[in-house]
Amino acid sequence: MSFFDSMAPALASALTERGYDKLTAVQMAVLGEDARDADLLVSAQTGSGKTVAFGLAMAPVLLGDAQVLGEVSVPMALVIAPTRELAMQVQRELQWLYAKAGARIASCVGGMDMRQERRALADGPHIVVGTPGRLRDHITRGSLDISGLRVVVLDEADEMLDLGFREDLEFILAAAPQERRTFLFSATFARPIVQLARRFQRDAVRLSTVAESQPHEDIDYRLLMVAPTERENAIINALLYYDAQNALVFCGTRDAVRHLTSRLANRGFRVVALSGELTQAERTNALQAMRDGRARVCVATDVAARGIDLPNLDLVIHADLPTNPESLLHRSGRTGRAGRKGVCALIVPYFRRAAARRLMQLAKLDATMEPAPGPAEITARAQAQILADESLFAAPQEDETEFVGKLLASYGAEQIAAAFLRQQMAARPAPEELSEAREETQAITRPERGERGGRYERPERGERPERSGNRFENGIWFRVSLGRKHRAEPRWLLPMICKAGHVTKAAVGSIKVGDTTTDFEISTALADAFEATIAANGTGEKGVTITRAEGGNRPAPAGSRRPDSFKDGPKPARKPRGRPDNAFRATEGAGPKPGKKKSYKPKPGRDPR
Asked: What is the overall mean pLDDT for the chain?
């Protein structure tokens, strides 16, 4: 017995034409006997086919024993999604799934023409898909009648609660008929989700497919180490090296999206932007450009982290490190969906290596730390792709044979091959030169069962390079033009030094702050490279310079009030402690003033105590 036998024939036919030869775990779960007539509380990871799952779960209620849906005056099913993009995606998925069943599907999302939505609702749709706020507006205005609902689906319920839609959801669910089935899909069974289920569901059956496999097992995670000033170059090289059919690049801010989109467009990439500042039409056009092949790279903020399903999305790049494991998982989950393999690359500046390691372990993910790909690796990979091009294996057609002979007679095979190679390489943007990676690379693995998730173990003593206490054995001294008069402190000088010299804090030894300058140690092994980097790129701070101390030994800080040693003479006498006499205080204006001593007189009616 195949899984087609347990579903409506119209849906089985649609799945067959779509190329489905098996169902995902969550899709099989909703077709089980225990889930057939019950409310469902479903937890499944991103990319597991949840839209098709609740589409299959709705079919027995909507179709019954019928082959097609008849005419209706009010909607039979309501699907609520947290974002406009996700709602539109759900509508597209349900349209092909229910096409043979004759379903009419309307959408109600913010940012679209409300008059067109009212006309679509008046035409008698079987299924309505929308966002909470817009659906509530239509219900309040009377343009959406939900008195005949048989099924209500909450997709990404945890996200809707996080975005503050609780009041809208409770309004919609309270207005819906009591005799209905409610399907609640969420990434986790968090407490707010369980509370919502208890209030609006009846004896819901819990279905969870998350524990069956490790999260994102179809995604290959890479931490690409790079100099802080070369992040954009590393992004360009990563796009060229992996050469994905579609790629998604996440940035932390809208300004970063605008800047990186412009940079990639100037380098010859077919790129679109996606952020909250764009209108709904602009966002829809950007996603459509990715779907129809007019664009291959989408630069986005976290607005695209949930619900966006782009075809053939094989690469996700984090231009800025995510702020937490949840954001990392939601961003990365755009690739490696429904059994398809994907690559997730995090661009990691040298000085943020430890933060990236902690992030991966908190998310319980395996990752490989390695240098960002350089021109040599990109060229080698491009040449391998050219050699594997299927067009090279095809024999000449009859109408091509004569001209092929002319080419060989006129130029020769070697010259023609060279021209073909140059043509192929010219069609690709040129890779960027990167500084030589000086950081060790290693694999980062998720904690084993029973361990505390995400805890990063500090290296054992003795692993740090040539350190004794808070100093190196033979460090090289440098001087930065900031001191106490500039309110310099080691806690903010250290990150600046690491970022300027492309080193980690393990490479920095003692830091001695003087009046106008500060001296600090750099590990002997990295001192020359540190100096070369500073000479090439500067410090990155206006008016701030870093120079190497003469001979590598630490000089006395300029203007220092605290000499480093007293070998040439005795220590100066310390100023005696204690309060100065009254004469000194009177001179300074701090002593008692002459004159009549003021007495205290309580006001009438008040207790002097």
From this structure: 80
The helix/strand/coil state of 226 is: strand
Please report how the helices 524-537 and 490-501 are oriented relative to each other, as an axis angle in degrees rounded to 10: 80
**Which residues are registered as beta bridge partners of 300?**
250, 274
Query: What's the DSSP call for residue 314?
Result: E
Which CATH entry fits the domain spanning 467-552: 3.30.70.260, 3.40.190.170, 3.30.70.330, 3.30.450.20? 3.30.70.330
Residue 197: pLDDT band (50, 70, 90) is confident
CB 220 within 8 A of CB 344: yes
Query: What band does 366 get if pLDDT is binned at 50, 70 and 90?
Result: confident
Whole-angstrom distance, CA of residue 482 vs CA of residue 128: 63
Against a cut of 0.70, is the pTM above it? no
What is the predicted pLDDT for the residue at 212? 47
Give the distance, in angstroms, between the CA of residue 391 and the centroid of all CA atoms in the same chain.
Answer: 37
CA dihedral for 38, 39, 45, 50, sign (positive or negative): positive
CA separation for the pair 377, 384 (Å, rounded): 11
Query: Residue 433 and residue 426: Cα distance in Å, rounded?
Result: 17
CA angle 103, 108, 111 (to 5 degrees): 145
The arithmetic mean of pLDDT across residues 318-331, rounded, is 86
Beta strand spans in 445-569 (E): 467-468, 471-472, 476-480, 508-513, 518-522, 546-548
Q: Please, which residues have CB within 8 angstroms of residue 173's CB and are 6 or more apart in sequence? A: 152, 182, 200
SS3 322: coil
What integer is the mean pLDDT of 550-576? Answer: 50
Rounded Cα distance, 530 and 497, in Å: 10
Cα–Cα dist 440/477, whole Å: 23
**Which two tokens mark 349?**
């500046």
Domain 219-374 has CATH 1.20.210.10: no
